[in-house]
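Q: Joint fold for the lines below.
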Amino acid sequence: MEEELNEIIEECRTAVEDPEYPAVHQWLEENSNGKVLGHFQVYFPEEIAHAAGMLPLKMKGFDSSVQIREADAHIAAFVCSILRTSLEQALSGRIDFLSMYVTHPICDAARHLNGVWTRQFPELSCQILYLPQNAASPHAPAYLLAEYRRIAGIIEEITGTSITDESLLASIELFNENRRLLRELYQIRRETPEQIGLTDSYLLMAAAGAMPRERHNELLGRALPLIRARDNHPQDKLRIVFEGGYCEQPPIEMLSVLQDVAYVVDDDFMIGLRWLTEDVPTSGDPMRNLAVAYLETSDYSPVQRDPRKPKEDMLLKRIHQSKAEAAIVAAPKMCEPGLEEQVAYDNALTAAGIPHLIMEFEEKTTNFEQARMEIETFAESLLFEFV
Amino acid sequence: MLVAGVDVGSTQTKAVIITGEHEILGRGLCSTGAKLADAGETAFNLALEQTEFAEPDVAFVVGTGYGRFNIDFGDAQVTEISCHARGAVHLFPGTRSVLDIGGQDTKAIKVTADGQVVDFNMNDKCAAGTGRFLGAASDALEIPLGELGPLALAAKNPVKMTTTCTVFAESEILGWMAKGRRIEDVVMGVHNSIASRSVSLLRRVGIEPEITFTGGVTRNTAMVELISELVGSRVNTNEESHYCGAIGAALYALDQVLTGAGTERGLPT
Amino acid sequence: METQKVAIRPALSQAGNTRTASRALMDNWWKQLGEADAAAQPVANTFVMGSLAEVLNTFDIPMSFPEIAALQTAVKGKAMDYLLAAEDLGYSPDICGYVKVDIGLHATGRDHPLGKYPKPGMVVASNMCNTYIKWAEVWERQYGCPVFVLDLPGWRGTGFEYDSSSETFRNDVKYVEGQIRDLISLSAEVSGKKFDIDKLREILGNVNRMSELYQSILAMNKNKPAPFNALTEGINYMGIANILRGLPEGVEFMETVLAELEERVAHGVGALTDERYRLLLVGTACYTNFRDFVGMFERWDGVFVASEYMSYAGGGIDRGLHYDLSRPIESLAEQILITSQPSMSGIFFSHEWQAKMAEEYDVDGICYHGVKSCRTTAAGLPDAREWLLNNAGVPGLFIQSDLVDSRLWAEAQMRNRIDAFFESLQSRRVQSGV
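A: Joint structure:
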């Protein structure tokens, strides 16, 4: 049983961590005319690409397994790690398999991606998806629907496959299933965190963006009952929420530092994969349903403006719903929106009397000493406090 | 007729005295220290002592390097970018790309056949990938700078340095040591980090052979090996490479004397 | 060590008019903000890109431009006090310095070196800079004031030119027009005034006139010598154009500038006595060491004949913005969409614009100045520089510092790079026998 679970986790680990994208290559071998759409953080309606037979791939950053050779020549200093390593992957030819690359201007640094990629890869279809930054505006749904249709048109052109209501609906159902499974994984974390460690849970989750969803559904479908069936004893560990993983991800080694000292009962890692918080309705116009879901039944991040979802309130909600005792509010180094949000989070958590640690991380680092010390000290100080 | 070039760098000051036929008659080297003007003068005098001549025999002095404006006996100033380019082409006429790893700045320069700068690129404001990074390793590990290169060559499994900040380099180095990594592997990790950042700068201007490596770090054999490996061909270095900036400055001084076109900025107009 | 080069000019009748006018206008602007604050009249915080001054002025809502206020603290040598005050509150050293100066001002009693820094009664932000939105949220939390975020979909094509005949454009216009109508309602609420479409029309007419004049002003620098330095004087023109957008005083100021420049051109008077290098500035200014920065270029007789800054922070008036007064709101939506593109998305493809400017203004080189404070303008500069050198043969200098944070100013490194760049320009000239 443990063996099967380990196999599943290893398959996910390879898909997520291997900078050569083995899961993508395998898919391409099995689908000789298959085309891959890479999309940068945070959210992309992957169903649209899937409905045209494309493999949507979530473009992520890498840790020290990717050495920066070329990327620094194209981007100024003071830019975060994920922009550099993801560009390095492209410049080194590792993602030559892409037929389309989509960015959403989530922050002032990421806004440059499309220009840089266009200049560097004139043959690649580089596209911008403009998700509304005025999400609460009554004019936003109509706008977003037209924007999704526009992107769908480009996908149809590239694949030569038309996206029908039927095919889109089938994709929505597949992704609904995926989101249900991910919600269940997080439910296990909230209810019985002793059953699955943070790094394993992270790999199981993040693999959604790195392999075909059909395969991911199958793996999660097998893994979740195995996790539930475990008989781990709850330990006297602090329950914490980790906030700050909506775009750049902390290196896996830092996650293992976290799981050593605490139960991380909820987080915002790869939040784009879990952006839609409820099933997308399967009746009515599927494209409209997808657009409305983005605006109406969605999570939050520092890079979306929606006055209906003040971010500090949303964080407090996440903490309360997961019955966490404390929070770690991290931001990637050089991440303008993440760093700016930290102060609001800090104030709100202080006002609510929730112990928290404010820290920075960098995906591409091997130096965890400082992070380890900060996290351990934080956890120790709280354990003594609660004794 | 003699001219001189004095390169007041952030760590070392170099001076050369050359003849109208480009023959190097004297070389001077000293630590820069806090008094930039003194360092320039000391190096110049050391170089002069190696010749049979006296100061009035030197027709023109061009200062370069960070302290170039502090040499009060200098007649003109030219940046070390132009000087390294000029010096490199003089030492190795086939040079089209120049890499100078200095104490504070690393420069990648693309040059024409006659030593003119086409384009250049330098490290960011912080000193990552510069000679100072080696200094940090030397301090942290308490190994003299000159022994780092040979030690690095003994590495079998180099560590991956990720810090881009010299200030944090020391703590990362000590972190690797605390994890029980072999000292040579750590030292090689530091070398790899500098080499890859330096070659990244070269890529920004476009690597075109021949590539000439200049500055004090050329005496570090491990670094020469690594950079050659990364650029895919043997980089030019010789015993004069250390003085390359000063040689370039002296050649500019010679231009001034020959053309008589002395300007406050050192270059002919 | 060096003396600043000051142009020796023949006695010109218009000389100094611009400087006198801009000082008076700026003083008056601060005075009005102070009065509004004292009278608890709602002031709108807005931004140089996408200010929607057209709508705010229709309701006589005084506008505060925190970006301009922030840069002024740096020019006055006071920015560090505010930066540190903000960092004490937990703001990172790695975020936008403008934001932190503003936060520092609010945290220390709102005493700006030039006057009372008002409390915002409402905020108009846009996604032309993502940080605007984060910044607006800071005020929203602190003062609970209404925040309006204008969401401008950037051009999705991969290029500088915007296709305003596309279906995408028509769809975007609907979205923007709807939002502008929302802002009109909000402004009526905040100001307690009724919307007067004729007043909007009059303001749009003034912007049209300012736009024509601004374009003529920029074009003056196609002359040799260039009559003004786009980095120093140009920033001044732009600042006034922003704070007085759509007002008669703004039109008058632009007329004053143009008259002075026309006279300079007629007499062959340049920004520098001896113009030897014509440069294009890409990126922003460095306000902490404004004179030092300019001096490093002037030492080589280099003048900035044009600047991308005057384009993307000019609110579209550099590129033919013209409102159709017969349908003001629709036209406002369309024109804002079209003319915001240079800063919205064009900035990321600005290599095309740079190549064009380099040719039109006959520049010798491009200075790419990346500032840590502004990733919008800085993140992609090295890539653009490489493109210009390789594809258009225009040499470029890449340097980095900051708008307001003097900790990021490294004098020796800056000077070294600038000197080396001019040395290479000089040898290029020698090579080509010019």
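Q: Anything notable?
A: The first strand of chain B starts at residue 2 and ends at 8. Residues 183-205 of chain B form the longest helix (23 residues).
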